[in-house]
Amino acid sequence: MGARCRAHIRCGVILCCLVLLPALAGAETLSGRVRWIYDGDTIAVSGVGTVRLLGIDAPEREASSRDRFYGRWQITPATLRRIHHSGKVFLIETLKGKTVTLQTEGAPRDRYDRLLAYVFTADGELVNQLMLEKGYAAVYRRSDFSRKESFLQTEQQARTNRLGLWQ
Q1: What are the pLDDT digits (tens) for 94-145?
Q2: Residue 100 lies in a domain
Q3: Predicted TM-score of the model (pTM)
Q4: Which of 93, 118, 127, 158 could pair with 103 in a Cys bridge, judged by C-beta atoms 3.0 to 4.6 Å apart?
Q5: Is 52 helix (H, G, I), strand (E, B) or coil?
Q6: 139: containing domain
């Protein structure tokens, strides 16, 4: 292998590191006990604080500007309030008082200083994806994240099966 070829390989490796390192640098794995469920996409974890489930958006308890997001699918405000309640109850039953593992990626916090994370149960289930499977949430489309394609497929399956939001 010539010197020129080695130089190209080194440049390629450096370029890959420059592209991938910022995303990997923000990744972190934490754990703690869930002490509170605020709604279908926000929980409180002991020793961590407020955690926003990465990649999903669940309806709010009261009418808000986020309702317009669901309007594109003709989901009524009454359905949004009902699904908010069902999603919150599901998270309470699934997570409250239990230890979870949190996995971040990229920017670890949102503008409200909530930790953005994938939330895993003790048996390894990804809660963010469970919320999509049951139709309690939709994929958060405003940002990119590593599981976005998988989440979009899961949401589509819930829509096909007419679950939750998609009834």
Answers
A1: 999 999 999 999 889 999 999 999 999 999 999 999 999 999 999 999 999 9
A2: yes
A3: 0.82
A4: 118
A5: strand
A6: 27-166
